[in-house]
Structure formats: C-alpha cells, structure tokens
C-alpha cells in the first residue's frame, strides 16, 4: 500500500444510458460495482473517498467521505478529478488515484504500476491502457496540479486526455484478456456483459474473483 497516495471513486455521472440513478450501485454477480471498485482499491491506497453529487446520505453505508464536484452544472469527470485532488492535497498527500465507479474489475497492481510508469517517465501523471485503448479517468494525479486544472475547467476544458497531455502523462498497459481490468458498464447491456465476463473468469481455476 502507498501511504502517500489517496484513492477516489468517481461516481458523479448522470447515468443517462441507464435511465438515471447511481451506476456504481448497480450489482454485478450480487455485489454493487462500488463494492467491487472499493474492494480493489482498499489494499492499494489509503485514505479512500467517493466523488458524487446530490445527497451524500445514499453512500452512508460505506462510511467514506463523499466529495461533490467543486463546479456546478455537471461539467464531467475532470470536475470529479479536481475534487479528488483538492481533498488529497488537504490531507497533505502528493498523489491521488481515481477510478470510475462502473469499472468493477480493477487490477490488484493498479496503483503500483501507475506510479512505476510515472516515475520512469519523469512526469506528474499516469493513465491506464488496455486492449489498445486509453482510460483517461483511470489515472494517477499529482495534487500540485490542482490549480492548473481548476483554471482549465473555468476556461471550458472538458477533455481529460487533452489536459493531461499538456502536463506530461505516462501510460501503463494491462492485458485485456481474459478479462479487461478497465471494462466499464455504461448501459444495461454492458452490465449484463460484465456479469457474464465475471462468471466466465471465475469459472477458470487460474483466476480468482475480482
């Protein structure tokens, strides 16, 4: 576990493609996606928090800080990332990692590998890749960049990868087979697919349940 790195689950989306509500509270094989994300992050970083807007009481069962976006109007995941950076900086931490609340298969070496590629490249940011795709919200952030991000958001920036490219970002790669660790469930169909993938993976004697 990295004592210098906090972790925040990004759960502030509007879930339009699921008819609204909180995607992370949808279940995959009997456990909410939020439980699965937190279960993956808990051995890797401390402290933990949830980024979400609206009434924080709906997350009370998890006993974690609930961080609202620092800007109104649901400006996208960069606002949640800024909330994470501000919170971690307030705790005196240099680093914070974020992960979407609808990515139930996060790898056990998530934070360690992001730190490794960041350090090797000598840059302040690191992002996950799998299957030839980058996953911009799945990333490691230096909290000292939070004012630069705040200014970018105020100026209308909404694209994560465009902002990270300005400051230097390394990419850590994971295999996408037999199970893509950064699969995310944005629709009911993808939620069903996640459950099918999990059942298939856990049926293999060589892989334990995420």
Strand content: 15-25%
Name the CATH architecture: Alpha-Beta Complex
Biggest sheet record = 7 strands, mixed
Strand order of the largest sheet: 5-4-1-6-8-7-9
- According to DSSP, the number of beta strands is 9
Number of domains: 1
Query: What Rg, in angstroms, do the CA atoms define?
Result: 16 Å
Written account of the structure:
This protein is α/β, with parallel strands linked by helices and 210 residues long. The chain has a single domain, classed as Spore Coat Polysaccharide Biosynthesis Protein SpsA, Chain A. The chain is 32% helix and 21% strand. The strands form two sheets. A seven-stranded mixed beta sheet has the order 5-4-1-6-8-7-9, with helices on both faces. Strands 2-3 form a two-stranded antiparallel ribbon. A hairpin with a 2-residue loop joins strand 2 and strand 3. The longest helix is centred in the C-terminal third of the chain and has 15 residues. It is globular and about 45 Å long. The two termini are 18 Å apart.
